[in-house]
Amino acid sequence: MVDIQAANQTAVSRMMEARPILRGVAPAKDVIPGMKPNLLLHAGPPIEWERMSGPLRGAVIGALIFEGLAKDEKEAVALVEKGEIEFDPCHHHDTVGPMAGVTSSSMMVYILENETHGNKAFSNLNEGYGKVLRYGAFSEEVIAKLRWMNDSMGPLLAKAIEASGGIDIRALLSESLHMGDEGHNRNKAGSIIYTAKLAPWIAKVAADNDVESDLLKALGDNALSVLNPVMAACKAMSASAHGVEGSTMVTTMARNGTDFGMRVSGLGDKWFTAPAEVPDGLYFPSFTSKDANPDIGDSTITETAGIGAFAMAAAPAIVTFVSGTPQDALNATLEMYEITIAEHSHFTIPQLEFRGTPTGIDIRKVVELGITPRVNTGIAHREAGVGQVGAGLVRPPMKIFEDALVAYAKQYNL
Amino acid sequence: MSLTKSQVRPGVYYDSVVLMQLQRKLAALPGVEDAGVVMATPANLELLADSDLLEAAGKAARPEDLLIVVRASSEAKADEALAQVDELLKQRSSGGANQAFRPRSLAAGVKNLPAAEWVLISVPGRYAAKVAHEALDSGKHVFLYSDNVDLEDEIALKQRAAELGLLVMGPDCGTAIINGIGLGFANRVRRGPIGLVGASGTGLQAVTVGIHNYGGGVSQAIGTGGRDLKAEVGAASMLQGLRYLAADEATEVIVLISKPPDEATAARLLSEAQTAGKPVVVCFIGFAAPAEQIGNVHFANGLDSAARIAVGLSTGAITPPAIEPRAGYLRSLFSGGTLAYEALNGLQNFLHPIYSNVAIRSSQKLTDPLHSQAHTIIDLGEDVFTVGRLHPMMDNDLRLRRLKQEVEDPETGLILLDVVLGEGAHADPASELSSAIAAHTKARPDIEFVALVVGTEEDPQNTEEQIHKLEAAGARIFRETTAAVDYVAARLAAAPSAAGKELRPFAEPLAAINVGVESFFDSLKAQGADAVQVDWRPPAGGNEALASILEKMKGK
């Protein structure tokens, strides 16, 4: 008979012991397994073009233009409708991407290596704010920014990271959690640490002062610049915990803007999906919840790994997402202890007397207590290309946990 | 005609979330059509421009400046709104302000209040046993208010609790007072030296109130639930409570309250009470008490008298002599029938099982009067023994032979004899009996001899001399039956059974986790106890199919 307790301990220990190091930056086709020119990776569980939401479609169009496969929206859509383009979740290729998460073969991606278990994970580079591909924007300025990232930012970052010998993202997160970050919606401190760590190496390897200055400015101005390496680090951690026979621990949570998907360590590669919900949150000027797209992005990998909304207590500055007071932020984290297997051995929360963050979602506890995981998230406009309209809180639908529990009972003959 | 107006605050920084909140509040003000509050970064200015919120002052702002823009129906409205910015920034949402976290699971409750020793459970009966087991698993005492809990579950819970050195009060336990804090339904009574254990909630309430009103006070009032004294449960909780109070330094007098238990359970409880080393007032409503008092055990015939007696005892500083319990069975060889009957009437409450040829209850009937079993009281003056021979008051022969038989029985621990003096009786019974006692003592030094001597100093046998001879042989002498019964009951009262660990002293101040009915939590807080409320819900939201899968996955 399977020992669930022991299996979950193994899974959560692997996740916490994983030590993801940022090793470099390279074109997706050179490093991501199975990457090819007509393949686009996207956030969340598998989805076909017909069911894709506005922002995801927009990002697909933008990526095809960026790759030179289409010159405009019309051509891009025609290409897709002809069946020339293949889609696959990032997660099927050890990759994660924020919001639409669309990653194409020539895009520069971060390479994270889990030093403990040897597995790798990848994520694209962060575009910053405003009109960006990850929210489905594909105007000329968006494509131009992507080109700059690929031609200037990426290669210089690659050299700087290589020169630095690698950056320990787990250690960076341990530190940023003590500086008011929760690692998902708030990465201000982490991004500053990241910039500070890289700056000397960028200065050392840069051949051109202007490029160097632009890169430093892009990293320093962007409070999300470390989000993508953090997500890939979380992916490397959770992937190392996947496939533990008998474990009921969640190893993937991801949304494609239409469905919320989940995978469980002991249930193989099966996705459990249900319609994604619209986040509850605060909106930018002139937007309301009517403008919001259902939940989207792979960034829920942070909550999966024990940070993000699970570490909300560490980020009192953004408590308004959970309703208002620092006590509410504490309560958010305290609630997540109810459905998790362990307290993180590396990520701790000063506000809770340095208790480890709640880590390793146990589907049994979720179903038993009726508490779904909390997710902090950005909110995308439902139409392609408009961009971010707010930020807030969302929870996955309970159904995916119930389905997973039933599947578990079947697979393990309970 | 609407009007857009901006305010720039150079070098003022707020987190974007604070800004979004301010913007939402501004937009809700009368006359305001839209509002934008941002740090004036190029990206944010672009956003404002898209929403028609960017005008000259905004365009001139620098990235490190706070930019506040309102579009209002008139300039006056816009100014009014902008004038409120500082006030709005100071506002704190009061909804849920500092609302302490309410866990959903007992496990989280335990984590949040590690000091809690008690878990109060008032969830629906069908779920209650599971929650109670979980509480025991985490090392907590249980106050189980829920009813409709299966008897088998109650037995299993109490067995586990005893093994773990924990207490389960209930199921269906309405009342307790622990360290001065009322659990469930409890009256506010002063603290004092009287400890109670009750199988009846209102009984316990009535007696604690009585104690208070008579000027006394309560150390602990432990509830057991109404079924605790049923034979199947065997008074598991009452025995634990009794032992706890016996060992508790703050308790000087103990009160037991229940409906009448069955024989075996009553004997177990009363013999345990005998070893308490302090007065025990027994109020088993409707119970035929053998006497007002036997040793340290006082029998009250009602709740009020229990309270009155307890308060009297607690102020009277009565310390009954400590009598060490010993092992073995009682073998009592009487020559006087009524003396045998009176001894049985008293001892049946403490010694179980007890048999006699003058049985009061049918279950006490001795199978074979010629052979003792367990505790036995024999009237040797019965016809079966006296056919064709002299009455044992005149002739010791029969008794000496039976004495030998009992001494040869390894189970014998204490032998009680009566020596009835006076006209017509044997001229010197003590001589024959004491030499037999002396001889038997050599062979079986572990056997204790007790003699009940009935006679006056004017009787022909010389009572004093008779007593002297018996004492010289090692017998302990009593002059009337109840005194002998007191002693024998105390000596042979069942030694505390090894089953179960002793309860640790209840920690002060009391801290508890309340699972279920919220008013119990409120009342704990009102009494100054540290408490956590668990917002319990049925597992899997009451979905039976999912709950059954979860059940199968438990403990794996």
What does this structure look like?
The complex is a heterodimer of chains A (414) and B (556). In chain A, helix 3 (54-66) crosses helix 5, helix 6 (169-176) crosses helix 7 (188-205) and helix 7 (188-205) runs antiparallel to helix 8. In chain A, a hairpin with a 2-residue loop joins strand 8 and strand 9 (259-264). The longest helix of chain A has 25 residues, at 140-164. The N and C termini of chain A lie close together (10 Å). Chain A has 414 residues and is α+β, with helices and mostly antiparallel strands. In chain A, the strands form five sheets. In chain A, strands 4-6-5-1-7 form a five-stranded mixed sheet. Chain A has 13 helices and 16 strands. Chain B has three domains: 3-90, Gyrase A, domain 2; 106-316, Rossmann fold (3-Layer(aba) Sandwich), CATH 3.40.50; 329-492, Rossmann fold, CATH 3.40.50. Chain B contains 20 helices and 22 strands. Chain B has a six-stranded mixed sheet, with helices on both faces. Chain B starts with a strand and ends with a helix. Mean pLDDT of chain B is 90; it is low at 94-98. Classes of the chains: A alpha+beta (414), B alpha/beta (556). Chains A and B meet through helix 11, helix 12 and helix 13 of A and helix 1, strand 2, helix 2, helix 6 and helix 20 of B.
The CATH superfamily of the domain at 241-411 in chain A is known as v583 domain like
How much helix is in the residues of chain B?
A: 25-40%
* Global shape of chain A: globular
What count of structural domains of chain B?
3
Return the CATH topology of the largest domain in chain B. Rossmann fold
The N- to C-terminal Cα distance of chain A equals 10 Å
Q: How many strands, which pairing sense, and closed or not: the largest β-sheet of chain A?
A: 5 strands, mixed
Multimerization status: heterodimer
The proportion of residues forming helix of chain A, as a percent range, comes to 25-40%
CATH fold field value of the domain at 241-411 in chain A: v583 fold
Class by helix and strand content of chain A? alpha+beta
Query: How much beta of chain A, percentage-wise?
Result: 15-25%
Helices and strands of chain A, in order, run as: HEHEHHEEEEHEHHHHEEEEEHHEEHEEH
Report how far the terminal alpha carbons of chain B are from each other.
Answer: 70 Å
Q: Which shape of chain B, going by the Cα principal axes?
A: rod-shaped
Number of separate helices of chain A: 13
* Residue runs with pLDDT of under 50 for 5 or more positions of chain A: none
Q: Rg of chain B from C-alpha positions?
A: 38 Å
Beta percentage of chain B is 15-25%
